[in-house]
């Protein structure tokens, strides 16, 4: 029995979560495993109900579960609220509360969706299947920052700080992930300039000794950003810092096309993980059965892979998505000529049937 905190959220959140849960139910019967869902209100719906983005007791409840599956939170209805009362605050509280230091963003280009990549045909034909492993709670975004006046001039600074233990734990996540993939880690840094990057590189080298079966390459971030559009097929797992990962993961998600397809996992200590599509609440299409549920369904697959070590079930879901695309089923966001246009619910149903 696995206990999962389920946070449908706002906008299309509940619609895409509904489909992901149907997929999990199918996995449950096929793989003989039981899931218990603990439904939790967070985001705009929690503000409407309780006056806060997420209640403390609900946060505690989430921490008692093995994993969290989240739709999306926010929307124009709550835009006027002060910063600490906005729906997005629920996300920060969840990430902080769960101490999720590793953000995993797979960027996979499906054969059927090659036309949606902005890259040239001869580049995409080589295939894109990248996992960006980004450090999420350290580095420049969390180091000492401030402003002061020096010699009559105003200065501002942000400091890149990494400890060996921080690098070690994120590197381990990358190597473990690579072991289940094509066994290659490309660690991205700026070690020719930055001291923190030199510590990063040294530490990654040390961790790599425990993974002799995984190939390790180092790449400077400027070169990596170029290589991502020049020949993305050379990458398997990209391991990088908070800021470089922020930038590179956006670049990686763009080269594979639609936002409705991209899943993510944020991992912390032990098996606790937060799984969510990278898209938002899409208020423009909410409640119309138009949302693509694939990003959330693939997020559920990541949950099975990383929190429950159910690699076979994760693969079965990913394969079911591929079959649906191969058979020509498309939600509106990925629709191209001569395909079969389906809504959120039908796409979910077809994927279920393919498992
Ligand atoms: P947030 O700030 O919550 O990340 P956002 O302003 O970045 O939200 P999204 O909610 O991600 O925006 O929506 C951006 C665009 O992508 C919208 O036009 C939306 O309809 C579309 N979109 C987002 N998710 C999906 C989906 N699952 N299926 C289809 N279209 C989507
Ligand atoms: Mg957004």
From TrEMBL:
GO molecular function list: 3-isopropylmalate dehydrogenase activity
Listed SUPFAM superfamilies:
Isocitrate/Isopropylmalate dehydrogenase-like
Recorded catalytic reaction(s): these are:
(2R,3S)-3-isopropylmalate + NAD(+) = 4-methyl-2-oxopentanoate + CO2 + NADH
Q: Which PROSITE patterns match?
A: IDH_IMDH
| One Pfam match | Iso_dh
User: Could you say which residues are annotated as the site Important for catalysis?
Assistant: 141, 190
Q: Binding positions for NAD(+)?
A: 75-88
Residue sites binding substrate per the record: 95, 105, 134, 222
Span of domain Isopropylmalate dehydrogenase-like: 3-351
Q: Where in the cell is it found?
A: Cytoplasm
Keywords per UniProt? Amino-acid biosynthesis, Branched-chain amino acid biosynthesis, Cytoplasm, Leucine biosynthesis, Magnesium, Manganese, Metal-binding, NAD, Oxidoreductase
Q: In which pathway does it act?
A: Amino-acid biosynthesis; L-leucine biosynthesis; L-leucine from 3-methyl-2-oxobutanoate: step 3/4
Organism domain of life = Bacteria
Fill in the subunit field for this protein.
Answer: Homodimer.
Which HAMAP family does this chain map to?
A: LeuB_type1 (MF_01033)
Give the similarity note.
Belongs to the isocitrate and isopropylmalate dehydrogenases family. LeuB type 1 subfamily.
**Protein name in the entry:** 3-isopropylmalate dehydrogenase
Q: What organism does the record attribute this protein to? A: Caldicellulosiruptor naganoensis
Point out the gene that encodes the protein.
Answer: leuB
């Amino acid at each position: 029995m696995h206990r999962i905190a389920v946070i449908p959220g706002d906008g299309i959140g509940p619609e895409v979560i509904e489909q992901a849960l149907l997929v999990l139910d199918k996995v449950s019967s096929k793989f003989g495993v039981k899931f218990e869902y603990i439904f939790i209100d967070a985001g705009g719906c929690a503000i409407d109900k309780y006056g806060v983005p997420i209640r403390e007791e609900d946060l505690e409840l989430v921490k008692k579960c093995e994993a969290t599956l989240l739709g999306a939170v926010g929307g124009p209805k709550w835009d006027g609220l002060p910063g600490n009362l906005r729906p997005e605050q629920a996300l920060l509280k969840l990430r902080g509360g769960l101490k999720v230091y590793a953000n995993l963003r797979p960027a996979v280009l499906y054969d059927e969706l090659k036309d949606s990549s902005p890259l040239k045909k001869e580049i995409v034909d080589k295939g894109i299947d990248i996992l960006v492993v980004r450090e999420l709670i350290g580095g420049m975004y969390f180091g000492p920052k401030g402003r002061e006046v020096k010699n009559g001039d105003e200065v501002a600074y942000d400091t890149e700080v990494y400890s060996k233990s921080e690098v070690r734990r994120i590197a381990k996540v990358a190597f473990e992930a690579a072991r289940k993939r094509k066994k290659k880690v490309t660690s991205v840094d700026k070690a020719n300039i930055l001291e923190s990057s030199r510590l990063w590189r040294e530490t990654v080298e040390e961790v790599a000794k425990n993974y002799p079966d995984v190939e390790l390459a180092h790449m400077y971030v400027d070169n990596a950003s170029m290589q991502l559009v020049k020949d993305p097929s050379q990458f398997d797992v990209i391991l990088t810092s908070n800021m470089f990962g922020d930038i590179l993961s956006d670049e990686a998600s763009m080269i594979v096309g639609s936002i409705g397809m991209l899943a993510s996992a944020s991992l912390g200590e032990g098996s606790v993980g937060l799984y969510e599509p990278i898209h938002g609440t899409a208020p423009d299409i909410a409640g119309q059965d138009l949302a693509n549920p694939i990003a959330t369904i693939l997020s559920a697959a990541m949950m099975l892979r990383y929190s429950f070590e159910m690699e076979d079930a994760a693969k079965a879901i990913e394969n079911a998505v591929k079959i649906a695309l191969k058979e020509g089923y498309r939600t509106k966001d990925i629709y191209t000529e001569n395909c079969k246009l389906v809504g959120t619910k039908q796409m979910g149903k077809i994927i279920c049937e393919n498992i």
